[in-house]
Amino acid sequence: MIRSFAPWHRYFALLVLALAAPAYTPPPLMRTTLNPQSAQTCLTCHVDITQQWGSSAHAQADRKLNLLFGRMYFASLQETRGATLVKCGPCHETEQYVTNDFDKVRPVSEEGITCVFCHGISGPGPTDAVPPVTLELGPYFGPIRNPVPVKDHASKYSEHFTKSAFCGSCHQYENQNGILISDTFGEWKRSKYAKAGVTCQSCHMPGSPGRVSSLGPARPRVADHSFHGPDKNRALQGAATLVLKLGKRGTENLRVLAVVTNVGAGHAIPTGNDQHLLLIRVRATDTEGHILWENDPFRDSSGSIFGLILANDLGAYPAETWAAAKVVADRRIQTGSSAQAAYEIPVGEAKGAVKIDAVLLYRKARPETIQLYNLPEDVYGAERRVAQATLTVQNP
Ligand code: HEC
Ligand code: HEC
Ligand code: HEC
Ligand code: HEC
Ligand code: HEC
After folding, report:
1. For a pocket test of ligand 4, which of 173, 181, 184 has the largest count of ligand atoms closer than 8 A to its C-beta?
2. Cα of 49 from ligand 3 centre, angstroms
3. pLDDT below 70 — which residues of the chain?
4. Which of 46, 155, 194, 338 is most deeply buried (CB count within 10 A of its CB)?
């Protein structure tokens, strides 16, 4: 049976009213008539897919597992007196908002972006819904035109699953002030990849031949659900190049330009919200390996940080996404484009040649954020290498 789903923003409107009302009005009741299945039940037949999903960022999006999201979400609730309740959760903690299970009685409500949510999407939805999708509770929608029938669930083909717009329903959003926080889908749509038909799924869900289900036939492609980063997904390697160029030589200084080019990502680098950064660390050493100089990407004015900087209505920055009223700087590097940083390297005391090493790194959160929300440095401050370059300058 296909049950059409009432527009959820109505429930959310109720909820927001409840928070704003002076007397306590309980939130909407949990919808006990719906019984969405946990990923655990899919494991029986879709073993690989379920294990892959379990290791993905999608499965870890719940506030308990992603502390950055959890702590920021609570801060936003406090600062906006509950207004972000329905503005963050539905993309990050999906199923909880479908059944109003705010106490998370059911395990599925803690599964972040879970199977039954994505596979309940039949197509795009009203633009003011969060996220803007149409959910049809009943069959599981997917990309297979002729799925083998199974008594555990009905299956239904939906072309939407093969399109970038499917991902774009969450990977593209603006805040209540109309500030575009994440433009991943838009960046892709304007790129050569969109024209060539290279979708998000092509790069992020590489497939291999196998069985979709232990009860089904062998198929040419089973889509990988782990959404791994470039360390484990070869399709994502080599997103950027880094080149060092020697500029004018002064008597005491070397002027060096570092040029970063987005050669392989299907969108800007970094993409998504303002926390994600690319940064360049540069070091100059002499022939004996002594460090002559190092940059401090977060403090100097070299332009070593690439990302989005938001300000609040008073002009203070960096502001959190929900408080953002203005874009201070957008240094994300669009597909096929380059950006650069410039360094004045003091080499007055160098003996012999000077070696300049630069690395382009990706990190998930700014140092201020880690401090503000008291996050584990090893997880959120880790820097992953994207590209590197070396330049040797004979004795200046
Ligand atoms: C229901 C909303 C939703 C849909 C649909 C969705 N995503 Fe996501 N995605 C998220 C959220 C929220 C996160 C962040 C999870 C976290 O880090 O806690 C995320 C994280 C990711 C990440 C990891 C980012 C990182 O920092 O490591 C990738 C890659 C990704 N999604 C790709 C996709 C692709 C490709 C699709 C389409 C096939 C897709 N997503 C569909 C909500 C969604
Ligand atoms: C008893 C075994 C079984 C269980 C349990 C099961 N499935 Fe399936 N599922 C199948 C089979 C068999 C197919 C068809 C595979 C094929 O044709 O290659 C299928 C197909 C699908 C499809 C593809 C639909 C399409 O047309 O593209 C989706 C999506 C899906 N299942 C999702 C789920 C989810 C989500 C769960 C857990 C909530 C789940 N399944 C639990 C056996 C199962
Ligand atoms: C972020 C959304 C998202 C989540 C979460 C998700 N899927 Fe999928 N799933 C997709 C997309 C998109 C495709 C189609 C990929 C393609 O064809 O390129 C797909 C394809 C499938 C298929 C069809 C076979 C195939 O490989 O194309 C099955 C079965 C399936 N998913 C089951 C599951 C199960 C089980 C879970 C949870 C353990 C799950 N999915 C979680 C988006 C999702
Ligand atoms: C041409 C291949 C390609 C396509 C198409 C593509 N991506 Fe990516 N994506 C990448 C690469 C490469 C990276 C990793 C860049 C790096 O090394 O940091 C990435 C990283 C990401 C990240 C991690 C966040 C970040 O800042 O690095 C997210 C989220 C993401 N992609 C979502 C999407 C979505 C959504 C789509 C479709 C609208 C999409 N991607 C299309 C190649 C692609
Ligand atoms: C339309 C869906 C959507 C809404 C609404 C949304 N997010 Fe997100 N959020 C995402 C997606 C997708 C990602 C992963 C990639 C990216 O950064 O765009 C993400 C990533 C994040 C991250 C980074 C997680 C990490 O570990 O990298 C934080 C923190 C976050 N969101 C907080 C919030 C807060 C707080 C709100 C509400 C004010 C919110 N989000 C509203 C979709 C959404």
Report:
1. 184
2. 7
3. 1-26, 395-396
4. 46
